[in-house]
Specification:
Blueprint (H helix, E strand, L loop, with lengths): L1 E5 L6 H10 L3 E6 L2 H10 L2 E4 L5 H9 L3 E4 L9 H22 L5 E7 L21 H12 L6 E7 L2 E3 L5 H13 L2 E4 L5 E6 H14 L4 E4 L3 E5 H12 L3 E4 L8 H4 L8 H7 L8 H4 L6
Length: 293
């Protein structure tokens, strides 16, 4: 299958590209810079120059492909306005890609986030979150899933709060970065809230399986660890960096503060049973041991 992928050179993108190529697919990768294009070529993909805002490029990429995987996001959490801009850009990109695939029965795999459900681990049967600071992303993905009624084999892989590899990535990576800057390995509240996680290499396998097997309109959870307490995550970060570990104000995390403070464990039981997906790489707490002082 010839697969058009956005975000192919980000944290998870190279793992997805390698997983696709290793299983007989070819890859056309969106590349917004010369450096990204060179990285895509070096990985074995064919680069197509452009970013998420280049809607004509997205249409052209989808037209050349047998399937599409969307991973790209601006990841600008510096202010509510910057985040809103990133969400709007992604929403327009998803709508454009979806329209290009209508009536083709080709697969379209989008990424989303695992929802938070009070009092229990969320499951694939729970609704995609459409409210809050990143609710716009959920609304856009809900639109992608709705394309199932218009001849698109659309599906969504929900990623947990931390997608990690070699001790970096996701919410845990944000904690590490703030710890380096502030001199304190902090956590919001009492730190008992739980965050799910997955290794990037395991998530990559699930994106491939969804591309190959997922039925139209289905949702899957790329969850390796159902939920580690944030204070345990901060404790490993603090030990690796030689920093004190303590609670810090929620405001430390800007527009993500409300999300960081929430208890949000998540299950992947259905995904494992239905698609035969089984995480094999290190857990988050194990992987954080790779943090360099």
């Amino acid at each position: 299958m010839r697969v058009f992928i956005t975000g192919g050179t980000g944290l998870i993108g190279p793992a997805v590209v390698a997983e696709l190529l290793g299983n007989g697919h070819t890859v056309l990768a969106l590349a917004r810079s010369d450096a990204s294009a060179q990285a895509a070529s070096a990985a074995g993909a064919e680069p197509i120059r452009g970013g998420l805002a280049d809607l004509d490029v997205l249409r052209a990429g989808a037209a050349q492909a047998d399937g599409v995987i969307h991973l790209a996001f601006a990841n600008d959490f510096s202010s509510p306005e910057a985040l809103a801009t990133a969400v709007a850009e992604e929403s327009a990109a998803l709508a454009t890609l979806g329209e290009a695939l209508v009536g083709s029965d080709r697969p379209f795999v989008a990424c989303s986030g695992t929802p938070a459900v009070p009092g229990r681990a969320s499951t694939e049967a729970d609704s995609t979150p459409v409210e809050g600071p990143v609710g716009g992303r959920g609304r856009a993905v809900t639109g992608v899933l709705g394309l199932a009624s218009r001849g698109v084999r659309s599906s969504a892989v929900r990623l947990p709060r931390t997608v990690h590899n070699e001790g970096t990535g996701g919410f845990a990576g944000v904690l590490t970065g703030i710890a380096r800057q502030s001199g304190v390995s902090g956590y919001p509240g009492d730190g008992t809230q739980r965050w799910p996680a997955v290794h990037a290499l395991d998530a990559a396998v699930l994106f491939r399986l969804a591309l190959e097997q997922a039925q139209a309109g289905t949702v899957w959870h790329a969850v390796g660890d159902e939920g580690d307490q944030v204070r345990d995550i901060a404790a490993v970060i603090g030990r690796r960096l030689g920093l004190p570990v303590e609670s810090v104000p929620v405001e430390t995390y800007g527009p993500l503060g409300v999300i960081f403070a929430a208890d949000q464990p998540s299950s992947s039981t259905h995904t494992r049973q239905a698609l035969g997906w089984e995480p094999k790489h290190p857990s988050l707490l194990e992987d954080l041991e790779n943090i360099q002082p």
